[in-house]
Amino acid sequence: MEFYLQFAHGMKSMTIEMAKKWGGVKVILSPRDITPEQLKKWSSDFKKNNVECLFDPQCYFPKSNHKKLSQYDYWDNSLATNMGSMLSYEEQLIEKVLSYNNVVETKKFIIPSYLINYSEDWLIKWKKYSEKVVDAANKIELSKEKLLTLVLPSELLLQHEEVIEKFIEEAITLDIDGYYIVPQPPEEKYLVDNPLWFTNLMLICAALKLNEKKVIVGYGNHQMLSLATAKIDGFASGTYLNARRFSNKYDDQDMGIKRKTTWYYCPQAMSEYKISFLDSAYSSGSIMLLKPDEGLTNEYSDLLFSNVMPSTVQFNETKAFMHYFHCLKEQIKMYSRDTYTETKAANELLLETAERRIELLEKRGVFAQTRSFKDVVDVNRAAISRLHTARGFLLEHSWNSL
Questions:
Q1: Model confidence at 16: pLDDT above 70
Q2: pLDDT at 250 over 90
Protein backbone atom coordinates (compact mmCIF):
# COMPACT_ATOMS: atom_id res chain seq x y z
CA MET A 1 0.00 0.00 0.00
CA GLU A 2 1.34 3.41 -1.01
CA PHE A 3 0.56 6.87 0.28
CA TYR A 4 -0.81 9.52 -2.09
CA LEU A 5 -1.28 13.19 -1.36
CA GLN A 6 -4.86 14.32 -2.03
CA PHE A 7 -4.23 17.76 -3.47
CA ALA A 8 -6.15 20.65 -1.95
CA HIS A 9 -5.97 24.42 -1.57
CA GLY A 10 -2.43 25.75 -1.10
CA MET A 11 -0.67 22.39 -1.39
CA LYS A 12 1.80 23.03 -4.22
CA SER A 13 4.79 24.00 -2.08
CA MET A 14 3.92 21.31 0.46
CA THR A 15 3.82 18.68 -2.28
CA ILE A 16 7.22 19.70 -3.61
CA GLU A 17 8.76 19.78 -0.13
CA MET A 18 7.45 16.29 0.59
CA ALA A 19 8.88 15.10 -2.73
CA LYS A 20 12.29 16.51 -1.81
CA LYS A 21 12.20 14.93 1.65
CA TRP A 22 11.00 11.54 0.45
CA GLY A 23 12.84 11.38 -2.86
CA GLY A 24 9.54 11.59 -4.73
CA VAL A 25 5.83 11.65 -4.01
CA LYS A 26 2.56 10.65 -5.66
CA VAL A 27 -0.26 13.18 -5.73
CA ILE A 28 -3.85 13.15 -6.96
CA LEU A 29 -4.43 16.59 -8.44
CA SER A 30 -7.64 18.52 -7.89
CA PRO A 31 -8.92 20.79 -10.69
CA ARG A 32 -11.14 22.39 -8.07
CA ASP A 33 -7.95 23.85 -6.58
CA ILE A 34 -5.86 24.39 -9.73
CA THR A 35 -6.74 26.41 -12.82
CA PRO A 36 -5.84 24.98 -16.25
CA GLU A 37 -3.16 27.66 -16.56
CA GLN A 38 -1.63 26.71 -13.22
CA LEU A 39 -1.70 23.05 -14.23
CA LYS A 40 0.50 23.86 -17.24
CA LYS A 41 2.84 26.12 -15.27
CA TRP A 42 3.24 23.71 -12.37
CA SER A 43 3.76 20.59 -14.48
CA SER A 44 7.47 21.32 -15.00
CA ASP A 45 7.98 21.96 -11.27
CA PHE A 46 6.28 18.68 -10.45
CA LYS A 47 8.35 16.77 -12.99
CA LYS A 48 11.63 18.38 -11.86
CA ASN A 49 10.95 17.38 -8.25
CA ASN A 50 9.86 13.80 -8.97
CA VAL A 51 6.18 14.38 -8.25
CA GLU A 52 4.12 11.66 -9.95
CA CYS A 53 0.68 13.07 -10.75
CA LEU A 54 -2.75 11.61 -11.17
CA PHE A 55 -5.57 13.84 -12.38
CA ASP A 56 -8.97 13.49 -10.70
CA PRO A 57 -11.57 15.06 -13.06
CA GLN A 58 -13.91 15.61 -10.09
CA CYS A 59 -17.17 15.13 -11.99
CA TYR A 60 -18.86 13.96 -8.80
CA PHE A 61 -21.56 16.62 -8.80
CA PRO A 62 -22.19 17.57 -12.46
CA LYS A 63 -24.73 20.27 -11.60
CA SER A 64 -22.29 22.25 -9.50
CA ASN A 65 -20.89 25.50 -10.83
CA HIS A 66 -17.51 25.91 -9.20
CA LYS A 67 -15.49 28.77 -10.66
CA LYS A 68 -12.25 26.78 -11.13
CA LEU A 69 -13.80 23.51 -12.27
CA SER A 70 -15.84 25.36 -14.89
CA GLN A 71 -12.62 26.63 -16.48
CA TYR A 72 -11.82 23.11 -17.69
CA ASP A 73 -13.21 22.46 -21.16
CA TYR A 74 -14.73 19.09 -20.21
CA TRP A 75 -16.91 20.92 -17.70
CA ASP A 76 -19.93 22.67 -19.21
CA ASN A 77 -23.63 23.17 -18.62
CA SER A 78 -24.47 19.95 -20.46
CA LEU A 79 -22.32 17.75 -18.23
CA ALA A 80 -25.15 16.80 -15.88
CA THR A 81 -27.53 16.07 -18.76
CA ASN A 82 -25.16 14.18 -21.02
CA MET A 83 -23.19 11.97 -18.64
CA GLY A 84 -24.45 8.48 -19.31
CA SER A 85 -26.84 9.54 -22.06
CA MET A 86 -24.96 9.06 -25.31
CA LEU A 87 -21.72 7.32 -26.21
CA SER A 88 -20.37 10.09 -28.42
CA TYR A 89 -20.49 12.44 -25.47
CA GLU A 90 -18.54 9.98 -23.32
CA GLU A 91 -15.84 9.78 -25.98
CA GLN A 92 -15.54 13.56 -26.10
CA LEU A 93 -15.38 13.70 -22.32
CA ILE A 94 -12.58 11.12 -22.21
CA GLU A 95 -10.58 12.95 -24.91
CA LYS A 96 -10.82 16.26 -23.06
CA VAL A 97 -9.92 14.81 -19.67
CA LEU A 98 -7.03 12.93 -21.27
CA SER A 99 -5.55 16.17 -22.58
CA TYR A 100 -5.08 17.42 -19.00
CA ASN A 101 -3.58 14.08 -18.02
CA ASN A 102 -1.03 14.54 -20.77
CA VAL A 103 -0.09 18.00 -19.48
CA VAL A 104 1.16 16.48 -16.21
CA GLU A 105 2.27 13.21 -17.83
CA THR A 106 0.17 10.87 -15.71
CA LYS A 107 0.95 7.15 -15.68
CA LYS A 108 -2.57 6.26 -14.58
CA PHE A 109 -5.73 7.64 -16.19
CA ILE A 110 -8.64 8.27 -13.84
CA ILE A 111 -11.86 7.82 -15.81
CA PRO A 112 -14.51 10.30 -14.62
CA SER A 113 -17.71 9.27 -12.91
CA TYR A 114 -20.28 10.92 -10.70
CA LEU A 115 -22.20 10.33 -7.49
CA ILE A 116 -25.40 8.38 -8.09
CA ASN A 117 -27.52 8.57 -4.97
CA TYR A 118 -28.48 5.14 -3.71
CA SER A 119 -31.87 3.70 -4.64
CA GLU A 120 -33.23 0.27 -5.56
CA ASP A 121 -32.08 0.72 -9.15
CA TRP A 122 -28.66 2.16 -8.25
CA LEU A 123 -26.77 -0.82 -9.65
CA ILE A 124 -28.59 -0.58 -12.99
CA LYS A 125 -27.78 3.13 -13.30
CA TRP A 126 -24.17 2.63 -12.25
CA LYS A 127 -23.64 -0.24 -14.68
CA LYS A 128 -25.20 1.64 -17.60
CA TYR A 129 -22.96 4.68 -17.17
CA SER A 130 -19.82 2.71 -16.30
CA GLU A 131 -20.04 0.45 -19.35
CA LYS A 132 -20.41 3.48 -21.62
CA VAL A 133 -17.53 5.46 -20.19
CA VAL A 134 -15.22 2.43 -19.99
CA ASP A 135 -16.05 1.54 -23.59
CA ALA A 136 -15.23 5.11 -24.61
CA ALA A 137 -11.92 5.01 -22.74
CA ASN A 138 -10.98 1.67 -24.30
CA LYS A 139 -11.41 3.09 -27.80
CA ILE A 140 -8.39 5.31 -27.19
CA GLU A 141 -4.89 3.87 -27.44
CA LEU A 142 -3.43 4.51 -24.01
CA SER A 143 -0.12 3.51 -22.45
CA LYS A 144 -1.60 4.42 -19.06
CA GLU A 145 -3.38 2.18 -16.59
CA LYS A 146 -7.09 2.98 -16.60
CA LEU A 147 -8.82 3.46 -13.25
CA LEU A 148 -12.56 4.02 -13.19
CA THR A 149 -13.77 6.46 -10.56
CA LEU A 150 -16.03 4.53 -8.23
CA VAL A 151 -18.08 6.86 -6.04
CA LEU A 152 -19.65 4.71 -3.35
CA PRO A 153 -22.67 6.49 -1.84
CA SER A 154 -22.96 6.18 1.91
CA GLU A 155 -26.32 4.44 1.68
CA LEU A 156 -24.86 1.71 -0.52
CA LEU A 157 -22.15 1.03 2.05
CA LEU A 158 -24.85 0.62 4.69
CA GLN A 159 -26.63 -2.18 2.82
CA HIS A 160 -26.48 -5.89 3.67
CA GLU A 161 -23.81 -8.08 2.11
CA GLU A 162 -26.09 -9.54 -0.56
CA VAL A 163 -26.37 -6.09 -2.15
CA ILE A 164 -22.62 -5.58 -1.87
CA GLU A 165 -21.85 -8.95 -3.46
CA LYS A 166 -24.18 -8.23 -6.41
CA PHE A 167 -22.33 -4.98 -6.99
CA ILE A 168 -18.95 -6.73 -6.80
CA GLU A 169 -20.10 -9.28 -9.41
CA GLU A 170 -20.70 -6.42 -11.85
CA ALA A 171 -17.61 -4.38 -10.93
CA ILE A 172 -15.13 -7.19 -11.57
CA THR A 173 -16.41 -7.71 -15.13
CA LEU A 174 -15.58 -4.23 -16.46
CA ASP A 175 -12.62 -4.12 -18.83
CA ILE A 176 -10.42 -1.77 -16.82
CA ASP A 177 -7.20 -2.02 -14.85
CA GLY A 178 -8.74 -0.92 -11.59
CA TYR A 179 -10.71 1.58 -9.56
CA TYR A 180 -10.18 4.94 -7.92
CA ILE A 181 -12.60 4.50 -5.03
CA VAL A 182 -14.23 7.52 -3.43
CA PRO A 183 -16.31 6.42 -0.43
CA GLN A 184 -18.95 8.84 0.82
CA PRO A 185 -19.12 8.80 4.63
CA PRO A 186 -22.54 8.90 6.32
CA GLU A 187 -23.48 12.35 7.58
CA GLU A 188 -20.15 13.68 6.25
CA LYS A 189 -18.37 12.15 9.24
CA TYR A 190 -14.61 12.52 9.41
CA LEU A 191 -14.10 9.27 11.31
CA VAL A 192 -16.91 6.82 10.53
CA ASP A 193 -18.25 5.02 13.60
CA ASN A 194 -20.56 2.67 11.70
CA PRO A 195 -19.00 -0.82 11.40
CA LEU A 196 -21.18 -1.83 8.45
CA TRP A 197 -19.92 1.09 6.36
CA PHE A 198 -16.25 0.30 6.88
CA THR A 199 -16.77 -3.47 6.64
CA ASN A 200 -18.49 -3.16 3.26
CA LEU A 201 -15.78 -0.81 2.00
CA MET A 202 -13.12 -3.32 3.03
CA LEU A 203 -15.00 -6.25 1.46
CA ILE A 204 -15.33 -4.37 -1.84
CA CYS A 205 -11.64 -3.44 -1.87
CA ALA A 206 -10.52 -7.00 -1.13
CA ALA A 207 -12.83 -8.52 -3.74
CA LEU A 208 -11.57 -6.17 -6.43
CA LYS A 209 -7.96 -6.96 -5.54
CA LEU A 210 -8.67 -10.70 -5.58
CA ASN A 211 -10.01 -10.21 -9.09
CA GLU A 212 -6.80 -8.54 -10.27
CA LYS A 213 -8.01 -4.94 -10.16
CA LYS A 214 -5.85 -2.07 -8.92
CA VAL A 215 -7.44 -0.18 -6.02
CA ILE A 216 -6.62 3.34 -4.87
CA VAL A 217 -8.90 4.90 -2.25
CA GLY A 218 -9.26 8.67 -2.34
CA TYR A 219 -10.31 11.26 0.23
CA GLY A 220 -9.06 9.20 3.15
CA ASN A 221 -7.55 9.66 6.57
CA HIS A 222 -5.82 7.47 9.16
CA GLN A 223 -8.92 5.28 9.55
CA MET A 224 -8.03 3.89 6.12
CA LEU A 225 -4.75 2.43 7.38
CA SER A 226 -6.69 -0.77 8.15
CA LEU A 227 -7.33 -1.19 4.41
CA ALA A 228 -3.79 -2.56 4.21
CA THR A 229 -5.47 -5.80 5.33
CA ALA A 230 -7.37 -5.80 2.02
CA LYS A 231 -4.07 -5.27 0.11
CA ILE A 232 -5.20 -2.09 -1.62
CA ASP A 233 -2.56 -0.38 -3.74
CA GLY A 234 -2.81 2.97 -2.02
CA PHE A 235 -4.91 5.61 -0.35
CA ALA A 236 -4.82 9.39 -0.48
CA SER A 237 -5.20 12.04 2.18
CA GLY A 238 -4.82 15.79 2.27
CA THR A 239 -4.70 18.84 4.48
CA TYR A 240 -8.17 20.08 5.33
CA LEU A 241 -11.15 17.88 6.09
CA ASN A 242 -12.55 18.27 2.57
CA ALA A 243 -9.49 16.34 1.34
CA ARG A 244 -9.70 13.70 4.09
CA ARG A 245 -13.34 12.73 3.67
CA PHE A 246 -15.56 12.99 0.62
CA SER A 247 -18.32 15.57 0.67
CA ASN A 248 -20.04 17.98 -1.67
CA LYS A 249 -17.36 20.63 -1.61
CA TYR A 250 -18.23 21.91 -5.07
CA ASP A 251 -21.49 23.80 -4.60
CA ASP A 252 -20.36 27.18 -3.34
CA GLN A 253 -17.95 28.69 -5.82
CA ASP A 254 -17.04 31.42 -3.35
CA MET A 255 -16.30 29.00 -0.55
CA GLY A 256 -12.99 29.85 1.08
CA ILE A 257 -10.73 27.80 3.27
CA LYS A 258 -11.61 28.57 6.85
CA ARG A 259 -8.67 28.74 9.21
CA LYS A 260 -9.54 26.68 12.22
CA THR A 261 -7.84 25.05 15.15
CA THR A 262 -4.44 23.45 14.59
CA TRP A 263 -4.56 19.74 15.41
CA TYR A 264 -1.65 17.48 16.31
CA TYR A 265 -1.91 13.85 15.17
CA CYS A 266 -0.68 11.29 17.72
CA PRO A 267 0.05 8.18 15.63
CA GLN A 268 0.05 5.77 18.58
CA ALA A 269 -3.45 6.93 19.58
CA MET A 270 -4.66 7.41 16.00
CA SER A 271 -6.25 10.58 17.35
CA GLU A 272 -5.72 14.30 16.92
CA TYR A 273 -5.34 16.76 19.77
CA LYS A 274 -5.64 20.51 20.10
CA ILE A 275 -2.50 22.32 21.20
CA SER A 276 -4.29 23.39 24.37
CA PHE A 277 -4.48 19.73 25.41
CA LEU A 278 -0.78 19.31 24.63
CA ASP A 279 -0.19 22.19 27.04
CA SER A 280 -2.27 20.33 29.60
CA ALA A 281 -0.22 17.18 29.00
CA TYR A 282 3.00 19.14 29.42
CA SER A 283 1.76 20.69 32.64
CA SER A 284 0.88 17.28 34.11
CA GLY A 285 4.09 15.61 32.94
CA SER A 286 2.33 13.46 30.33
CA ILE A 287 3.56 15.14 27.15
CA MET A 288 5.87 12.28 26.14
CA LEU A 289 2.84 9.98 25.82
CA LEU A 290 1.95 12.04 22.75
CA LYS A 291 5.40 11.97 21.16
CA PRO A 292 5.67 9.76 18.06
CA ASP A 293 7.50 6.49 18.50
CA GLU A 294 10.89 5.98 16.92
CA GLY A 295 10.51 5.85 13.15
CA LEU A 296 7.61 8.30 13.25
CA THR A 297 9.45 11.27 14.77
CA ASN A 298 10.01 14.16 12.39
CA GLU A 299 11.31 17.71 12.19
CA TYR A 300 7.81 19.17 11.88
CA SER A 301 6.64 18.17 15.36
CA ASP A 302 9.93 17.77 17.28
CA LEU A 303 9.63 21.22 18.87
CA LEU A 304 6.45 20.19 20.65
CA PHE A 305 8.54 17.84 22.78
CA SER A 306 11.48 20.15 23.51
CA ASN A 307 10.69 20.64 27.20
CA VAL A 308 8.74 23.87 26.75
CA MET A 309 5.03 24.65 26.70
CA PRO A 310 3.82 23.40 23.27
CA SER A 311 1.76 26.54 22.61
CA THR A 312 4.94 28.65 22.76
CA VAL A 313 6.65 26.94 19.80
CA GLN A 314 6.02 27.53 16.11
CA PHE A 315 3.85 24.51 15.40
CA ASN A 316 1.58 26.03 12.79
CA GLU A 317 -1.03 24.57 10.48
CA THR A 318 1.48 23.77 7.74
CA LYS A 319 3.75 21.87 10.12
CA ALA A 320 0.74 19.98 11.48
CA PHE A 321 -0.15 18.85 7.96
CA MET A 322 3.44 17.86 7.12
CA HIS A 323 3.69 15.92 10.38
CA TYR A 324 0.42 14.15 9.53
CA PHE A 325 1.65 13.19 6.05
CA HIS A 326 4.96 11.91 7.41
CA CYS A 327 3.21 9.75 9.99
CA LEU A 328 0.76 8.28 7.48
CA LYS A 329 3.51 7.43 5.03
CA GLU A 330 5.57 5.69 7.71
CA GLN A 331 2.56 3.95 9.27
CA ILE A 332 1.65 2.52 5.87
CA LYS A 333 5.11 0.97 5.69
CA MET A 334 4.79 -0.39 9.22
CA TYR A 335 1.38 -1.99 8.77
CA SER A 336 1.73 -3.37 5.22
CA ARG A 337 3.53 -6.68 5.67
CA ASP A 338 4.78 -9.53 3.50
CA THR A 339 1.88 -11.87 4.28
CA TYR A 340 -1.82 -11.48 4.98
CA THR A 341 -1.46 -13.01 8.45
CA GLU A 342 1.34 -10.62 9.40
CA THR A 343 -0.55 -7.62 8.02
CA LYS A 344 -3.72 -8.56 9.87
CA ALA A 345 -1.82 -9.02 13.13
CA ALA A 346 0.03 -5.72 12.70
CA ASN A 347 -3.18 -3.81 12.11
CA GLU A 348 -4.90 -5.44 15.05
CA LEU A 349 -1.94 -4.43 17.21
CA LEU A 350 -2.20 -0.86 15.89
CA LEU A 351 -5.82 -0.71 17.04
CA GLU A 352 -5.05 -2.25 20.42
CA THR A 353 -2.21 0.22 20.95
CA ALA A 354 -4.45 3.13 20.00
CA GLU A 355 -7.15 1.99 22.41
CA ARG A 356 -4.70 1.72 25.30
CA ARG A 357 -2.97 5.02 24.55
CA ILE A 358 -6.28 6.90 24.34
CA GLU A 359 -7.37 5.40 27.65
CA LEU A 360 -4.06 6.29 29.32
CA LEU A 361 -4.16 9.86 28.03
CA GLU A 362 -7.75 10.33 29.15
CA LYS A 363 -6.80 9.15 32.64
CA ARG A 364 -4.23 11.96 32.60
CA GLY A 365 -6.87 14.47 31.50
CA VAL A 366 -5.80 14.65 27.84
CA PHE A 367 -8.74 14.31 25.44
CA ALA A 368 -8.94 14.31 21.64
CA GLN A 369 -12.57 15.44 21.72
CA THR A 370 -14.17 15.35 18.24
CA ARG A 371 -11.13 13.71 16.65
CA SER A 372 -10.74 10.84 19.08
CA PHE A 373 -10.37 7.37 17.57
CA LYS A 374 -11.93 5.87 20.70
CA ASP A 375 -15.29 5.01 19.13
CA VAL A 376 -13.69 3.91 15.86
CA VAL A 377 -11.28 1.28 17.18
CA ASP A 378 -13.99 -1.39 17.36
CA VAL A 379 -15.36 -0.33 13.96
CA ASN A 380 -12.05 -1.16 12.30
CA ARG A 381 -11.68 -4.29 14.41
CA ALA A 382 -15.09 -5.50 13.26
CA ALA A 383 -14.21 -4.85 9.62
CA ILE A 384 -10.94 -6.77 9.86
CA SER A 385 -12.74 -9.65 11.59
CA ARG A 386 -15.45 -9.82 8.93
CA LEU A 387 -12.89 -9.57 6.14
CA HIS A 388 -10.98 -12.48 7.66
CA THR A 389 -14.11 -14.63 7.76
CA ALA A 390 -15.25 -13.72 4.25
CA ARG A 391 -11.98 -13.47 2.33
CA GLY A 392 -9.12 -14.34 4.67
CA PHE A 393 -8.32 -17.72 3.11
CA LEU A 394 -8.13 -16.29 -0.41
CA LEU A 395 -6.08 -13.30 0.72
CA GLU A 396 -3.60 -15.52 2.55
CA HIS A 397 -3.02 -17.71 -0.49
CA SER A 398 -3.01 -14.90 -3.08
CA TRP A 399 -1.20 -12.18 -1.12
CA ASN A 400 2.07 -12.07 -3.05
CA SER A 401 0.31 -11.96 -6.41
CA LEU A 402 -2.13 -9.18 -5.54
A1: yes
A2: no
User: How many whole angstroms separate alpha carbon 135 and alpha carbon 71?
Assistant: 26
Instruction: Answer yes or no: are the C-beta atoms of 30 and 6 closer than 8 Å.
Output: yes
Fold of 2-243: TIM Barrel (3.20.20)
Is the pLDDT at 255 greater than 90? The verdict is: no
Query: Residue 23: how many CB atoms within 10 A of its CB?
Result: 7
Q: What is the pLDDT of residues 129-179, one digit of tens each?
A: 999 999 999 999 888 999 999 999 999 999 999 999 999 999 999 999 999
> Of the ranges 16-20, 113-117, 129-133, 254-258, which one carries the lowest mean pLDDT score?
254-258
**Full-model pTM:** 0.96
Mean pLDDT, rounded, of the chain: 94
Please report, for the chain, the start and end positions of each structural domain, with discontinuous segments joined by +.
Answer: 2-243, 263-374
